[in-house]
Amino acid sequence: MTDISFGKYKGLDSVILSTPYLRAEWLPEYGSKLCSLKIFSGHDEIELLYQSQQQTLALPPYNANFCDFDMSGFDECFPTIASCTMPGTGLQVPDHGEVWALPWHSEILDDGQIMFSVHSHRFKYTLSKSITLEGNQLQCRYQLSLDKDAAPLPYMWTPHALFAATPQTRLIVPSHMHSVTNVCNPSPILGPFGEQHNWPKATTHQGVHDLAQLNPPQSGLCDKFYFDQHLQQGDEFGFENDSVRVMMSVDHEIVPWLSIWKNQGGFHGHYNFALEPCTAGFDSIAEAASKKQCQVIKPGEDHKWHLNIKVSAARAQCP
């Protein structure tokens, strides 16, 4: 059974779904951020998402710099990650997109779902997501609708879900994905932007590095890379540590790209990581569109996709 309740998180109104196994909490007015995702294990609660040290959260204004505000939890990035000019419009897209810094409408549906939605006046789209929590699975169903009088919209969507890292964390991706391209410029380990490496064992000028493993926060490293191979039907990806195993899946036809962000103390001193399925192959929608590596929605169309997150005890803990 799923319970729906309302609360406060660091000074902001929240809506909460909970089962005997999981508890998920969102902030509708803060971009519908998933601020907390906890698993109940015996008498313990384990927070899966990275948490900042801020005690109260300030709401970001439109066009805010993402790094000037709360960098924790799971934010929706759309229609870009990197700030750029939207192709075909001449209009600037803010850093990490528009929707993380906009208030979303929220509604509790009769079947126990939560519906969030937001409309862009600048680019004339509506992005909505319906959320269900069943047992140990969080299911998010997205719909993107473009107004009939809008220009065609190339778009990048990704779940910017920052998970709490441990030195025991190991990243899991499908076996057919075996090489990556660095998109940090430069990376102390992976070299210049665009350099390719094998996954998970990357041979660099500094030796062999296991990209599926996290370095300790004292390493001061920070990396981001995209896989050169696309997600396929039935693929799952995620991570495991000493306590939990988290696996995710998406619609591979709409969301075929997968990137990984590893912050091992190198960015603002934070220790977290993200597995980011994407509708585009670059952080900048301008660059992705120029290389025809992104989804494009036409006026009057709807695009639909899903993100499923399944949480379980680590295999070492399973009987």
TrEMBL record:
One MF term in GO for this entry?
catalytic activity
| Gene Ontology biological-process annotations | carbohydrate metabolic process
Protein name per UniProt:
DUF4432 family protein
- Source species of the chain: Vibrio astriarenae
